[in-house]
Amino acid sequence: MTLADELRRRISADGPLPLADWMALCLGHPTLGYYATRDPLGAAGDFTTAPEISQMFGELLGIWAAAIWQQMGSPEKVRLVELGPGRGTMMADMLRAARVLPPFRAALDVHLVETSPVLEQRQRETLATAGVALAWHQALEAVPDGPAIIVANEFFDALPVHQAVKSRQGWCERTVALDPDGTFVLATGPAETALAERVPEFWRVAPSGSVFEWRDAAPVEALARRVVHGGAALVIDYGHVDQGLGETLQAVRGHGFADPLATPGEADLTAHVDFSALAAAATAAGARVDGPVTQAAFLQRLGIVARAERLKAAAPQKAADVDAALARLLAPGKTGMGTLFKVLACADPALGPLPALSETDP
Fold first, then answer.
1. Could you tell me the maximum CA-CA distance found in the chain, to the nearest angstrom?
2. Residue 72 exposed, middle or buried by CB count within 10 Å (0-12, 13-18, 19+)
3. pLDDT above 70 for 220
4. Where do runs of H (alpha helix) occur along the chain?
5. What's the mean pLDDT in 48-77?
6. Which of 21, 89, 142, 292 could be joined to 137 by an S-S link, Cβ 3.0–4.6 Å?
7. What pTM, to 2 d.p., does this model score?
8. Which 3 state secondary structure label does DSSP give 170?
9. How far apart are CA 302 and CA 357, in angstroms?
10. Helix, strand, coil: what percent of the chain each, to 5?
11. Read out DSSP for 254-277?
């Protein structure tokens, strides 16, 4: 049975699926979902993330984590946790950079939160010689208590997104239904008062056809609660700072855009992250929030340009590759990641301002 068969069965039996449920099943079905069946990264996959573009990205996050550990008072043990670790590339680069501060590296207890068996195996291979304690978990809640530094790069964009569509009758939830020939199509449910209340008050008078997206707050609330009494969490993802209207769900397959309904379980599904919603949820959970700032500003404040120069001096034959990677990480607009991607941190309020996330940082 394919995932398309399973989804047709469910819709035929129970009616149209809310879009968030569709996305959750396409990505996370335990045996037929996108992440359960493949390594989606790299040239042979569907997309490439910042850690796969350059070692500089993970190295600078490792330096940032070391600075946070010192800001925490250099605890004897600290959980270094990554959500959605991909191939383990970023964690490997972070751990290599951690060698510049041996007491920090000695304090590390590394935990990786991963639901994909395929990617977990890749992570185990990548980190086989890491030289630190490693543990894998299905959820953040399974990571043992204790001071923690958590990193999440391109994690929240893959969490299920809800959409409400404004009709003449009111706000309706967007769903996925079947047309008579069995093709998946977008539809809407009935107008609901609860949906109208979900939409910010200043958007409730939007014209018919408007779309409002949101994600459940529980994941970021869990992240904030985990660090609010000892630690910090860093979120790096693509998205917007100000809450607005519009639909951003997209599918990527073979490094190109695809129809989100056409091949369930065969394409990556993501949607822009609403950083204002992340900040509000983390603040409500009691955390201090720093940022968001652009990825370009964050990496520049951490010294990525100087790091690139050192890499080129050490290996002049790779200078063009280093320059190309640097440009891709910092460039604005659609061709680069510098301004599309944002960086936000939530932390124990006792820590005070976090490095590289303030507009006053050099």
1. 65
2. buried
3. yes
4. 3-14, 19-28, 50-53, 55-71, 89-97, 102-107, 117-126, 193-198, 218-227, 275-284, 295-301, 304-314, 319-330
5. 97
6. 142
7. 0.95
8. strand
9. 10
10. 40, 25, 35
11. TTEEE-TTTSTTSSEEE--EEHHH
